[in-house]
């Protein structure tokens, strides 16, 4: 049934600790949401690929995993279904399936439901509570920072605060990043350029007084910045392939994420940053390839001129 893709499988493996931590924080409903996303995501790809006489790619498992963990634990199941069907069908299927999509499917589905159902997606969060018992509504770290509240760095790093299901634990995400880089399942340039750009701009904005709400030491560990840097910016299909292109691509994502976070009404800008980066990914590779060809041509002309002289 599945088209075997070892790299995609390793990405899913790297996210298992995040799933387990989400269950520990929010209880059995996490299992229900994740199962719903996987069932409808796989079924959608099955019917799309069946019409083309192709197998379901294991890449859809990555899409489902990334999308599910980016959802708040209180998300209605029907919203999760709408999001993952949109992600697989319109984020990838209409382009011809795996390897042909322009945009990252998971972020496509995520931003669709966030814009379509903002009242549902952004107003109700759960306080962490062992296996989901006695949890109450709470505010996310980014909301707290905007309201001038203080945060504990240890809680931010470990992930013990209201958030989407899998985006909170910086520790677990960094461990996943080490695993992905070590197994050559993701490119470190994309991670470093995305997060590094966001970090530099956050510091500049704070030090110059352009944005005093987000102190860098708190802002960089809040929201989905680290999660997107590790799991979404590194998508091998929607990201560029050339080294220089990767650095520019990460700069676009990181810069746009901070600009939206700081100056727009949306509390988070990573989704917009990633979609903008996806838009220019192929163009960046074309430009870099063109520059490399010109450089080689000039080098060849120089060598020929030297030889004839």
Blueprint of the fold:
Layout: E1 2-3, H1 6-26, H2 29-50, E2 56-57, H3 59-69, H4 77-89, H5 105-116, H6 118-121, H7 141-146, H8 153-158, H9 170-182, H10 188-208, H11 216-219, H12 225-232, H13 243-263, H14 270-308
Parallel strand pairs: 1-2
Helix pairs in contact: 1-3, 1-9, 2-3, 2-4, 3-4, 3-5, 4-5, 5-14, 9-12, 10-12, 10-13, 13-14
CATH topology: Ammonium transporter fold
Low-confidence stretches: none
Strand order of the largest sheet: 1-2
How far apart the termini lie comes to: 64 Å
Counted by DSSP, the helix tally is: 14
The overall number of domains is 1
Helix content: 55-70%
Estimated share of beta-strand residues:
under 5%
Structural class, from helix and strand content?
A: mainly alpha
CATH class: Mainly Alpha
Task: Summarize the biggest pleated sheet.
Answer: 2 strands, parallel
Provide a brief overview of the structure.
The protein is an all-alpha fold. It has 14 helices and two strands, in the order E-H-H-E-H-H-H-H-H-H-H-H-H-H-H-H.
């Amino acid at each position: 049934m599945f088209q075997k893709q070892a790299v995609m499988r390793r990405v899913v493996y790297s996210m298992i600790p995040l799933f387990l931590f989400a269950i520990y924080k929010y209880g059995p409903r996490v299992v229900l949401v994740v199962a719903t996303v996987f069932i409808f995501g796989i079924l959608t790809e099955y019917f799309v690929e069946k019409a083309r006489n192709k197998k379901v790619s294991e890449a859809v498992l990555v899409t489902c995993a990334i999308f599910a963990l980016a959802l708040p634990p209180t998300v209605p199941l029907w919203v999760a279904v709408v999001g993952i069907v949109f992600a697989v069908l319109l984020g990838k299927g209409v382009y011809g399936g795996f390897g042909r999509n322009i945009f990252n499917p998971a972020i496509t589905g995520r931003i669709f439901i966030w814009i379509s159902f903002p009242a549902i997606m952004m107003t109700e969060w759960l306080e962490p509570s062992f296996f989901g018992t006695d949890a109450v509504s709470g505010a996310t770290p980014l909301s707290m920072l905007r309201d001038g509240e203080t945060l504990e760095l240890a809680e931010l790093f470990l992930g013990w605060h209201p958030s989407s299901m899998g985006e909170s634990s910086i520790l677990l995400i960094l461990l996943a990043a080490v695993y992905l880089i070590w197994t050559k399942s993701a490119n470190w340039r994309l991670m470093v350029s995305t997060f590094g750009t966001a970090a530099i701009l956050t510091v500049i904005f704070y030090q110059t007084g352009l944005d005093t709400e987000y102190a860098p030491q708190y802002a960089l560990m809040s929201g989905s910045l680290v999660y997107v840097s590790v799991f979404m910016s590194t998508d091998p299909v929607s990201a560029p392939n050339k080294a220089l292109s990767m650095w520019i691509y990460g700069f676009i994502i990181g810069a746009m994420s901070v600009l939206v976070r700081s100056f727009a009404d949306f509390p988070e800008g990573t989704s917009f940053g990633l979609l903008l980066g996806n838009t220019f990914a192929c163009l960046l590779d074309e430009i870099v390839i063109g520059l490399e060809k010109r450089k080689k041509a000039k080098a060849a002309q120089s060598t020929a001129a030297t030889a004839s002289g």
